[in-house]
Amino acid sequence: MAYFILKRLVQSVFVMIAVAFLAFSLFRFVGDPITQMTGVETAIEDQERLREELGLNDPFVVQFYRFTGDMLQGDFGYSYRTRQSVGEMIASRIPATLELGTVALLISLIVGIPTGVYTALRPRGFVTQSILLTTLVGVSIPTFVIGIMLIFLFGVQLGWLPTFGRGGTVQVGGWESSLFTIDGWRALLLPAITLGVYQLTLTMRLVRAEMMEVLRSDYIRFGMARGVPMRSLYFRHALSNTMVPVITIIGLQFGGVIAFSIVTESVFQWPGMGLLFLESIRFVDIPVMGVYLVVIAFFFVLVNLIVDLLYVAIDPRLRIKDES
Amino acid sequence: MREFIKRYEGLWLFSRSPAAIIAAIVAVLSILGAVFAPLIAPANPYDLASFSLMDGLLPPVWEEFGNPKFLLGTDDQGRDMVSSILYGARLSLIIGLSAMAIATVLGVGLGLAAGYYGGRFDMIVMRIADIQLALPAILTALLIDGIARGVLPSEMQQDLRVAVLTLAIALSLWVNFARTARASTFVQMQKEYVQAAIITGQRPIRVMFVHILPNILGPLLVIMTVDLASAILLEATLSFLGIGLPADSPSLGTLIRIGMQFMLSGEWWILWIPTLFLVALVVSINILGDFLRDVFNPRLR
Description:
Largest sheet of chain A: 2 strands, antiparallel
Order of helices and strands of chain B: HHHHHHHHHHHH
Largest sheet of chain B: none
Oligomer: heterodimer
Number of helices of chain A: 13
Helix content of chain B: over 70%
Helix content of chain A: over 70%
Shape of chain B: globular
Distance between the termini of chain B: 22 Å
Strand content of chain A: under 5%
Distance between the termini of chain A: 11 Å
Structural class of chain B: mainly alpha
Number of helices of chain B: 12
Strand order of the largest sheet of chain A: 1-2
């Protein structure tokens, strides 16, 4: 158990180093930092002096070491475009994206798991067939089109919900949250649904496939033969065994949610990290792009670690194997 | 003979599936329309002299004030929507198809080699694939696009936009091909005909492409259809985000982005007709992909 966790931790550290290396290469080799910082009228000698002062003439390894060291101390450098500290810029955007992503993921699970179970239990029913067809269409409709349709229907035609921004936010211990006001929830609803729809179809299909697989297995047949009530077979024995792969997928989906939040945030002008990343691409603001990558990778690694721990908690076999 | 029956069976299944038939018709019509756009489109949307502001914001013919000259109406600049969509679909399909082609060649090549040689080469390719699989395609494509913006000199940016976009999409889609090709190659490697070919001293390249490749085409064909749909979606998404193609050479995604500005003002056709076209195209390609998967995987029937 301890060994398993330790192995995961070491792997995570390696992933983070690799991503930091990528971010640093971006920063160092895409465009010249000096030309970005100085104007045309800066003399060549001044440029060279600045280059020396900033340590850009040092060996690559030394520079990379300094870069990671600074990052670990919370110094993420400055944006080419706004001249603000990148750390502060991204930190101020994190709550918006995390709240959006979490609510979207919750929607996908709360709707996806029950429909997945239902469609597995009644594979030939009319409702199942229509749900499956809908998800096929749902997968084919791009996220931004779903967003536009929701905006058009609930924002423009019916006028029920706001179509952009975060609505009313409250400061909760330095965390700017929109989860504590009705206004905030109203603003959150459409983007979260937009972001959740694609993940929902994935969750549903996965739960369905797993559930059908489990229902075919011997122990379920044996349970049927023994006369265990179907309800208990379905929901106690079958469903709990489908949860392990579902949890893995949640971990993977989190990455998808963060990435697609770029699109959703753009459609709804949601002031999160994704919108900042898009702006930084448009203006070739390399420091922001690099730090965004590192922050996203950090969340990936963190979520995957938690998923691994949950694994051990849910699947007793992992614990037993370890003790023997 | 076996091949013939298999093919025949596919056709028979096809004739029994109304969804696949409709999807095929929509896909073929869109592709024909896009290919022959310069011949059938009433106007050339790139030619600034061919449209005038006087014709701006005309609704489609079936609405009041519609003008029979512009079947689906015009945008704010007076551009004919039919022509814009045909030319836009042309760009979307060119980018989608070439991105898919590049991804296929790259992915199948690497996958075949990884499956054939195994060992360290296989490990390296698959580790790279794993890492990339953890990053969603859209993030990879955005990142590659961002890097291209930084590396390329600004005067070349506009000319190379289509190439950069194609490459960004291709590089974010190759993994699927590589993994499938590798897995199928492993299976084929166990078979006697491959062993025979190797023993008779044929060159690895020949064994891979002449002997193994024809036998793993089925699953690859399924991925090609599905990935064509993903490539078109990715391009549309990037263009919608304003990262892809600019407004003077619009793809479907760019048209939708422009149309967003008219959502509130009642000119619904500028937004919804390109959107409908894009969704219909992608849905039909996906339905065809699903159908092909069923044909090639008899277990699911």
